[in-house]
Write a structure and sequence with these properties.
The chain contains two helices and nine strands. The longest helix has 22 residues. The chain has an eight-stranded antiparallel β-barrel with strand order 1-2-3-4-6-7-8-9. The protein is mostly beta strands. 12% of the residues lie in helices and 62% in strands.
Length: 222
């Protein structure tokens, strides 16, 4: 039932995308990098999300976007040493995400005499995110007194997840239709839904919330 519902949503997005391509007055491609701050449950202090997509202009103030991005991050090792039994338990692994995003890009303010010659413009993008989250964990039990009790077990968990996000940005034109944009993004991607189900996991992973990014837009001829 869930898979059927997911296929219906994918179909709806593809129909909307096809409509956008046919009716857009102009199309721009873009590449972007966004860094999300995370706690010390991960090996690094930030998760870097790299992706790209397309912007479809229906009006100078209304330009829907679709994008695809990928991120990979390592998990901090979880270790527990028992001095009474001289044993060590250890869990280590990683998680990656493939994110598909779609949302209307709405310009609500600009700085300059006219919109076309503005020094910079401001926009907001409410987003629907569809994420494939895959977590891999390796559990080790080491008995220093009796190596025959040693155990290695691999864990794998994967989920599709739907969530909503919001991006606020400032766009600076460079030449022709090219531009650079700086943005902040807030979303509700629940990392714990997947990570907390790894075997022998003792960490309560939460939700990926806020990040900052940079994008480069370049014109595409129709």
């Amino acid at each position: 039932m869930k898979f059927y519902k997911f296929k219906k949503e994918i179909f709806s997005v593809l129909v909307m995308l096809s409509f956008s391509i046919v009716n857009a007055q102009a199309i721009r491609g873009f590449g972007n990098v966004t860094a999300y701050s995370v706690n010390n449950d991960f090996k690094k202090g930030a998760i870097v999300d790299i992706g790209g997509g397309a912007e479809f202009e229906f009006h100078p103030l209304f330009k829907p976007e679709v994008s695809l991005s990928y991120s990979l991050m390592g998990l901090n090792d979880q270790e527990f040493y028992d001095f009474d039994t001289n044993t060590l338990e250890k869990l280590y692994g990683d998680v990656y995400m493939l994110n598909f995003n779609v949302g209307p890009k709405i310009y609500f303010w600009y700085s300059g005499e006219t919109f076309d010659t503005a020094a910079c413009s401001y926009y907001i993008i409410p987003k629907l995110n569809m994420s494939r989250i895959v977590a891999n964990g390796n559990y080790q039990f080491i008995d220093y007194d009796d190596p025959q009790n040693n155990l290695i077990q691999k864990g794998h968990r994967a989920d599709w997840q739907h969530s909503f996000g919001l991006t606020l940005g400032m766009e600076f034109p460079i030449f022709n239709s090219d531009a650079i944009a700086l943005s902040v993004t807030v979303n509700k991607i629940n990392m714990g839904k997947t990570l907390n189900r790894l075997p022998y996991n003792n960490t309560d992973y939460g939700t990926l919330l806020a990040g900052a990014g940079i994008s480069y837009y370049f014109g595409i001829k129709k």
